[in-house]
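Please go through the protein record below and explain what the tokens say about the fold. Record follows.
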Amino acid sequence: MVLLLSPITISINSTRTGGRIYGFFSLRWIIFLFRYAFKEKQTEILVFGRRVAQSRYQEKPEIKPIKGEIKKSRKIPQIRDIFYLSRHILRLLKDLIYSLRLKYLDINITFGSEDPAHTGIMTGFLHSILGSFNSRHNIKWDVDFTRPVLEWDMKAEIAVMPIKIVSSLIKFLADGKVLMSGFRIIRS
């Protein structure tokens, strides 16, 4: 139970320049650290600061389907099951989002599209959304009306308590109708 009361810290440090993404994503919990480096496509797992596992992503060759392969026909799930589950899934997502605590956020974005009108619309949208986002976080954006571009420099850290995630999942799975709807969708 004590483990569920220890926060999980999620950190991201990412930069995109010249069409390449640099940086890392990490997840830290008690003595464990999981880190993924974007450029190298390398994953590391550390315990007490010592590396216990490491792997690199290697692209696999594409497997082409054999001609004349028989495909199974699937039944379409009932619409009422989908609508019933969608309401509960949205509640679960809301609970999970409220369980997150944003420690800091520092973003600097440069964007532009081929059409300056689209760039202007996006700029207006960002002003309306981020204008109401009154906090201590540092969010800046630069607009380039002359060319299509998307570059960023981002640092963020989020903390979450595992007990809040577990309680949200238990509340979701404890509803018998959710389980029955999910089983009906899986069977069809």
About this structure: The mean pLDDT is 87. The longest strand covers residues 100-112. Residues 79-98 form the longest helix (20 residues). The chain has four helices and eight strands.
